[in-house]
Design goal:
about 45% helix; TIM Barrel; hydrolase; alpha/beta; Dipeptidase; 4-stranded parallel sheet; Pept_M19; EC 3.4.13.19; Metal_Hydrolase
């Protein structure tokens, strides 16, 4: 691992912007006119650094529609290709979470059906959407004028307590798994089998999502994980005491671990106005650092959204608010695109390194937790 890490060289990618700008300021040229209106500046910044959105409930919403066309536009949902383009969304994580109460074989089967639905939707909308698994593929999709679709997060119940199913889901494209609501990732934390699942996820390149996980699971995952972790729908508990939001001590730990907290644009978790969402982003940046903050629209998840952030077209309004607060373009580039790219790249690198020294795990839950 040390030899492999020695081969890593810094590049001028967005994920490294703050350090590069400090060392070599001429690498960065602002993409907007500082004298223009904030909304115009926001659109210019997003055109160069689009949003990588951490959570979309679109697959679940589409299952209830008899017919839809996302490329022309679809009023029955919050997300379609025209609004994604208007909002400058370049990548989107599509949730594979299941209705409550599904477990075992039913959960596995329902997750496979969700995967099939997403792939069918993307295949039927080739001018607007493209499946992606890596940072490079998300960038390629964006450069081709498509929105990159990343598969996940899925619920941990989708594994059916089988590492073989985890590997099969990864082969089908799964890239994010939420570690909660199963026996091996519960209020008590990760069990021995849970730790083995996490190690296998790191070996494969499947990111751990900890939104909604217990504090014990969060802390043990941060201690065991070799790749960055995500909170796909978490904000600051200091500002709003929602159970999925994070206290400052965990935010600081996440920053030290170079993970990523993706703030949801929901009235319940962040507040009913765009200004309150911006308050959370200010707070997270101050506590965890600019490299650890992202965005999660949480559209089409059946949740109310703040004013001016009603659907996927509204991201310029949020970026304009942050510009009014004095956010630099470099930090905005990290918030929207660069931090997700960094996490994807580091996960891929960790997986390649782990595959050189670790065979696929054959562990069984009965052996480790029985």
């Amino acid at each position: 691992m040390a030899d492999l890490q020695d081969e890593r060289h810094p590049t001028a990618e967005v994920g490294e912007l703050p350090r590069l700008f400090e060392a070599v300021p001429e690498l960065y040229t602002p993409v907007s006119d500082p004298d223009s209106e904030p909304l115009d500046r926001a659109r210019a910044i997003l055109a160069a650094h689009p949003v990588a959105d951490g959570y979309s409930g679109l697959p679940g919403a589409l299952r209830h529609l008899p017919w839809f066309d996302l490329e022309v536009g679809e009023s029955a949902v919050d997300t379609d290709v025209p609004r994604l383009r208007e909002g400058h969304v370049g990548a989107l994580m599509w949730s594979l979470h299941l209705p409550e109460g599904l477990d075992g074989d039913r959960a596995v089967g329902a997750t496979l059906e969700q995967l099939d639905l997403v792939k069918t939707v993307v295949r039927n909308h080739p001018e607007g959407l493209r499946l992606a698994c890596t940072a490079g593929q998300t960038t390629d999709a964006r450069n081709c004028g498509r929105v990159a679709v990343l598969l996940g997060p899925a619920g941990a119940a989708a594994l059916g307590d089988s590492l073989g199913i985890l590997r099969s889901l990864h082969t089908l494209g799964l890239r994010v798994l939420t570690l909660s609501e199963v026996s091996w990732a519960s209020e008590a934390g990760l069990t021995r089998f849970g730790e083995e699942v996490l190690r296998e996820m790191n070996r494969l390149g499947v990111l751990a999502d900890l939104s909604g996980a217990s504090e014990a699971t969060v802390r043990r995952t941060l201690a065991v994980a070799k790749a960055p972790v995500l909170f796909t729908r978490s904000a600051a508990r200091a500002l709003r005491p929602h159970p999925a939001n994070l206290p400052d001590d965990l935010l600081a730990e996440l920053g030290a671990a170079r993970g990523l907290c993706m703030v949801p644009l929901t009235a319940e978790q962040t507040g009913p106005t765009v200004r309150e969402v911006a308050d959370h982003l200010d707070h997270l940046r101050a506590v965890a650092g600019a490299e650890c903050v992202g965005l999660s629209g949480t559209y089409d998840a059946g949740i109310a959204h703040p004013q001016e952030l009603d659907d996927a077209a509204c991201y310029p309004h949020l970026v304009a608010e942050l510009l009014r607060r004095g956010w630099e373009e470099a930090d905005l580039a990290l918030l929207t695109w660069g931090n997700v790219q960094r996490v994807l790249r580091e996960s891929d690198f960790t997986a390649r390194a782990a595959q050189l020294r670790r065979e696929p795990s054959t562990a069984k839950i009965a052996e480790l937790d029985g």
